Amino acid sequence: MLIIISALFVVITVLFALEASSVGAKMIILENKEDLLLQENKELLDKMVSETSLSIISEKSQEMGFIKPTEIVYTSKDIGVVANLR
Amino acid sequence: MNLRLRIVQLGFVIAFVFLIVRLFYWQVIKAKDLSDQARRQYQSSQTISAPRGKILSSDKSYLAGRGDGWLVYAQLPDIKLGVSEIADKLAPILVDDDEAVGETGKQTLFDEANRLKELLGRKGAVWVVLKHKVGSEKKQNIEALKIGGIGFDKEEVRNYPEASTAAHLLGFVGKDEEGADKGYFGLEGYYDQVLTGKPGLVLRDQDAKGAPIALGDQKEISSQSGVNLLTHVDKGLQINLEYKLKEGIEKYGAKGGSAVVMDPKTGAILAMSSFPSFDPLKYSEYSNDLFRNPVVSDAFEPGSIFKVLVMSAGLDAKAVEPDTKCDICSGPLKVDKYSIETWNNEYFPDSTMADVIKHSDNVGMAFVGQKLGADSLYDYLSKFGIGKTTGIDLQGEVSPQLRKKGTWNIVDLSTASFGQGVAVTPIQMLRAVGAIANKGVLVTPQVVDKLLGDSWDEDIKPQIGERIISEDTADKITTMMAEAAKNGESKWTYLRGFRVAGKTGTAQIPIAGHYDAEKTIASFVGFAPAEDPKFVMLVTIREPQSSTWASETAAPLWYNIAKDLFIYFGVQPE
Fold first, then answer.
1. pLDDT tens digit string along A27-85?
2. Where are the alpha helices (DSSP H) in B43-180?
3. Domain span at residue B104?
4. ipTM value
5. Domain check: are B419 and B537 in the same one?
6. CA–CA distance, B264 with B260 (Å, rounded to integer)
7. How far apart are CA B42 and CA B36, in angstroms?
8. Residue ranges of the domains in chain A?
9. Do B155 and B239 belong together in one domain?
């Protein structure tokens, strides 16, 4: 009986040790995945930041033919179309 | 027999003592070293990086962000290919993209290859850095070459999406003596400790393959990211200001210039720009002289824009009233051995104080100064913050000293009354005029609005200072400035319908003990709408060539920028 219990104990210990070591390996895989995702996230954020730069948007808009208003016309709130919009 | 037994016994005793001593040596004396060696074998230590805080504009878009770059290194003993071959392969990738263009690009490529050859051929070295902060794309290109001995380490890279926009305001991130990132100048320098995060550490047991042992020891000290700065800076205004300032400097052939826009009620800096400027990302390619922010670090003689401060003092002290007549304004004024003249040699006998500001009359201002007295003028200028730093949250602010109280002679008093012989920084001047716009109350200029942590934020409240002049005085000087803007020497550039209170200033630059008439600093300071100002703005232009006068350079540039501000603040013409 004692021999059986001892053998069982040894088997459980070995299995447990194997499981523990495979958990470590799984942890490494998950950590690598996490690093990769974080890296991709950072790169996408970088890209978003640079693509939404006002200086770049301004340059692109000029290339596309947009121009800055050169003459601003102020209209009174009481006149014509402006009054209708109120 | 007995003797032999005793000898053997003695041998055992000696062996036992030796064993004890040796055991004591390893277990007690060397215990720590051995334990450390063992820990190094089974325990891994990994640093958790703490990213630097971001700098955001008022709409929370990025002025300075963070990204990842790579340090490219060479492990020299592991290199199998020839040094020249590796250098020739790496140079086209490692050279900056915008430099590898045209004929000069070939030279740059050649120089880069030579630089790499020198590094890779270094005698006695084992590990050399080939390049810092290389992008991921370039890293992939290098990896594709499969050159043995070339490796990468991750490092943080500062991003400035608007390139040189607001460079003086932002500063840049360089290295300290130990090679760690450190902010210099502007916000990066002033808030360096806040922006810098605290790295964390993970200690854990690992197996022979380097995988963590699930049941082993594990300790983690969390990292703390740097705090983000939310500024008052409006990116749209900033970019427009930069564009128009640059355009103005080129148009007037000036050596440089600055422009600052502030909310006079809170001191919030909405935009600030100076030229010549630099790219914070490539700071090492620029001269150190360019890093100093002229708005807070450069002093200049303000000239006629200073008159509004002196007149405010005169009015507040009741030394003069707006309708007081100047009885010495009919010609040049003799003070000691000097003669004080007007800027255009035109004289207006019996001018009122309003006329003195409108005509920017030096003689009239000397009259105000003499009525006020040196000590009283000193006290008012001190209250306006002249001679003291403003406390703006930017690194590198300086303050030229005001001549000591009680040492001003009649010449000092007279010349200071029209802005000569005193020095101010642009931010001091803007703050002082801001007090007039704010009905006589001084505020501290502030760039940062909030500190944003991971799960907290801290509002930086406006610092409202003391009352400098009465509200009535502020109204009177505002009316004078509005009249000066509308009918003074810069009236041709006045925007009809908009109530602007402003003043031009043309100051000659003192060189080797005398003033050079051809070298001037032209300025215009003003706020609008005059009765309820939304902004106060100072424009200074250094050594304009097209005209030395502010009315023909700084003033039109001020109005050109103000046109955008009127739209931004929804200011309608009357």
1. 888 988 998 898 888 888 888 888 888 888 888 888 999 888 777 777 776 776 666 65
2. 83-94, 102-120, 136-145, 167-170
3. 73-159
4. 0.73
5. yes
6. 12
7. 10
8. 2-85
9. no
